[in-house]
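Q: Got a minute? One more chain.
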Amino acid sequence: MQQFKLSESTAARRYFYLHLVDATDGLTPETGEAGGQPQISINGAGFGNTTATLTSIGNGAYYVALTAAELGTLGAILVRYKSANTAEFQDLAYVVAYDSYDAAAQGLTNLDVVVSTRAVESTVAKDATVAKDSTVAKDATVAKESTLLLLPAATDIVLSGTHGAGSWEGSTPPSPADIDTYLSSKHGSGPWKKGAEFKV
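A: Always. Here it is, folded:
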């Protein structure tokens, strides 16, 4: 099935191709139809003669050069041809809003070649400290063991006793030694962060 860009301006891209066969056997290519008059229906409207007539390619193949006006409405077009020598020919094509010959952006006005206007600024990409801090990327225990990020309420009470009430995660957070001492007292010494989820 052929497709044409809306109001295509390049003449060679407006060729509608036909293959015409003999009316008697329906197989033998008809070679004498140059100058014949095709008809066109646009989006289901009645058939009317095309502006141009048939041009022969050879071996029963022809084209009719449609005009930009004949391709001026989005949707379906139906081209037909019939002469005393040929079987009825009808074929469908579509007029579309994009340009299939435009490899960069398909002729879409809201899509630039590099899609730069659609890129969202990323604070993660700009923040060099995120990219440089390899401990965030390398320490799988941070990603896998979410229980470390959600300390129980009793832990907050103990730590608040040392570092003040409220959000002890603020200006004076507990040191790693403080947390390790508290957790070791509850769960035993050693690599407690590798063990099962702790409970208070």
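A: Residues 140-150 have pLDDT under 50 and may be disordered.
Q: Perfect, thanks.
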